[in-house]
User: Fold these one by one.
Assistant:
Number 1:
Amino acid sequence: MALFNLGTLGSTPVLQNNSTLTTTDTTDVFQFKITNTSNINLSLTDISAGDADIQLFRDANNNGVLDNFDRQAGIVSRQASNSDEAINFKTSSGTFFAEVSRFAPGSSGNVSYDLALSATKPSGTFPLSASFSNLLPKEFVVGDLSHDVTRTGFINNQNTTDVYSFSLGFFEGVNIKLDGLSTDADIRLIRDFNNNRIVDAGEEIASSTKGGISSELISNINKSGDYFLQVTEFSGATNYKVTFDHFPTPDA
Ligand SMILES: [Ca+2]
Ligand SMILES: [Ca+2]
Ligand SMILES: [Ca+2]
Ligand SMILES: [Ca+2]
């Protein structure tokens, strides 16, 4: 195991790109602190052939070491093969360990990956609400839209954000609707122009952030290219339904 201490994590993403796990060093642990209630965001991307997974643990016994006591409670992202991994956890201040591990049955030889970590500030005042993540793992791959697509999901304090990736071709457009809510949730649409899997200034194309359980709508998106849609809880756990309403543009 290799251990890296990242110090205090803030909203600016910390990047650990081109990290490598080997057959003899199968685990990397990244230790960090957050000083206020925050959303901890972890994004594991560009995983090479093979399979890597990520887990997040709090230093529950405050001894500065990731031990079996801490491992009794954790948050896991364990997608198959080299799919991206994502964790978004709203939590109080403390010391945490993000553990990236090589999944041996799905891997042979080295497995490299890019890891981004951030701790975004909650929006609003008391009660503190979740905030959009500034990281862009391809958590749910919708792909090239060619017809309407509906997906359902669930967000809560252990999973504050779901990220969908999709693309539009020429002469295609989409309206995106979020409904089926039992508490407040919001959406925003992003184009990662510099392809760094981080939401930089100017990359948020549109958002819909109504209060209460009102449905959200982003309409008439009609430029070809790759997009990310984030669905984020605002005030608690809720199921949701997101609809990508695909249409041909008048030019077609
Ligand atoms: Ca500990
Ligand atoms: Ca995996
Ligand atoms: Ca970017
Ligand atoms: Ca809302």
Number 2:
Amino acid sequence: MKVFEIGDYSQGLALHAVERPEPVPGHGEAVMRVRATGINARDLTIMHGSLGKTVMPHTRVPLSDNAGDIIAVGAGVENVRVGDRVTMSHYWQWLDGDWHASMSEKDYAATLDGFLAEQVVVPAAALIRLPDSLSYEEASTLQSPGLTAWNAVVEAGAAKASDTVLTLGSGAVSVFGMQWAKMLGARCIMTSSSDAKLARLKELGADLGVNYRTSPDWPAEVLELTDGEGADIILNNVGLGEMENCLMAAASNGRIMHIGANPVVHNQEPQEPPVLTKLPNLILKNLTVRGIIVGSRRMFTDLIRAMVRNDIRPVIDRVFDWDDVYDAIDYMQSGEKIGKLVIRVT
Ligand SMILES: NC(=O)c1ccc[n+]([C@@H]2O[C@H](COP(=O)([O-])OP(=O)(O)OC[C@H]3O[C@@H](n4cnc5c(N)ncnc54)[C@H](OP(=O)(O)O)[C@@H]3O)[C@@H](O)[C@H]2O)c1
């Protein structure tokens, strides 16, 4: 079977296809034939050789998003059968209950080989069966951005119809955040660097848009759009660089969901972290800042049920073929997309 390995990244991207033996499932494992996967921001970082403190071996197979079908099961597997259409979260050990930082040690595409492969051995306990109404391409958008936004808006954010949800950018997490907010009847404001993208985001369901490039003081616009109140829930899909602005745009008792890890610029010196001069707003407005790390298998199951019940479709900007993976990376890096990119595998 074919997989892509990240290769020797010391001189830049070195992703290349190699042949590997077909995997054999052990006890409690299954083999997924991958039908679709997708690129996320963290995959670009991984392809450049590291994620946080984890240094990648040159043989690492990237991409954590996945949807496929089961072609073999090992001993002791009862929850899935050959032929089942399935998906799973890349932090597969978080099945239910509270997150523990040690769960990040088993992370598909970072500490384990990921899904830019024709076949992958997966733990059966992590698998979720897909409804017929979701295509492989659609299902492969959900693991990282869909679930992260679900956790931020529905679980940790506990958004309600009277809330205003503000979500930064037109990327995958942001667009899913808007979809979950609208599902709950909340009002949704989105930001973008492009008026054309804002117009499209409104067609997709956003109530209001603010251009953060032409309006650098965009929190002032958010306050104006909310009669001076601010946003109840903010998805900071950018990172620490936007924390000050989020503190300014938040309503009293607001919840700021810290999701983004500032876009990483490769081959450049790391930037100094910003000095937070607006921190008194935390106390003055009684704000909560909450770190979000994707979501559990239980949350993922809830998400899929809600999609079916409410007929929600992921926003896929473009689907690439397996042989066009470099085109997908180029398009991802161009910043032109809205929502998700998908790669069709088999
Ligand atoms: N915590 C977690 O568990 C978790 C999970 C998934 C992703 N993430 C992180 O969340 C971030 C977003 O992920 P993604 O998949 O949505 O990325 P993405 O699809 O690549 O989207 C990134 C978008 O960010 C917007 N952006 C960039 N700078 C901005 C700024 N200063 N203000 C507002 N928007 C800005 C851009 O929107 P416009 O083009 O419209 O300007 C861009 O399209 C990444 O850092 C990713 O690593 C974290």
Number 3:
Amino acid sequence: MIRSNYHVHSNYCDGKNSLEEMVLAGIDAGLTSMGLSSHMPLPFKNDWTMRESSLDNYFKEVTYLKEKYSLSIELYCGLEIDYFIDQNDISPLSKKNISKLDFTIMSIHTIGSTRSDNVYYIDETQNNFAQGIKKFYKNKPRDFIEDYYHSIAQMVLDYQPDILGHLDLIKKFNPEHFFFDEKDNWYKDSVIECLDAISETGTLVEINTGANLRVPGVGRYPSDWIIPELFKRKIPITISGDSHTVTGINYDFSKTEIFLMDCGYKEYGMLKKGRWEMQPLGI
Ligand SMILES: [Zn+2]
Ligand SMILES: [Zn+2]
């Protein structure tokens, strides 16, 4: 049984439930270690991350909940931090706050010019993503996707976050190969090159089960064919829900655990008393 989840949103950002509701759902689901990880505020206008003015309250509330539920669950304070392809970097606000966190998740969600408000998103709608590719990549999805995987690799090498968020988020709006075909050699090469870079670090790749709950048919991030490639490279994993509701707190964990064991994995990363330890799968 999977006993942890470090990718948990709340109504501090685009999650639907309060931090406390998410914690109680985690306890109910039998989790013994859980990370809260709202979206770090962004340096441009948007409607899905935390406001900068809420950061202090967020830290205070997580500290309060850690103590309140300390007998039932280990809680950790994190944030999902954005890396910007056009800047090859994270925001100054992220850098300033990293030291306050128990752990970090780093992800890429944006396409376009993050120094202005001229930003599009990989994961908002298919149309918005397509517009971003049209505007900044001359309507060539392949050019963007290659850039995306290079940037993921650079982000992990430069910052070595505890967890890499949703490795192949770019497949979210790709039904019937709208943007690309995962079977194309250029696509596979981009992913493999990225995994080779990640394997030089200690960063955990998250097996993100929440994708399918939000867009049925997407499956997990990363795609099934990538898991044996991770295993071959001895890349450590953690299992997370990218939970935006209480029902997503352990969504699809059981099936995912079986699949990971079929791929050869025997353990996953879990925070225990503040340190990452490997927890056996299937127990
Ligand atoms: Zn994300
Ligand atoms: Zn997330």
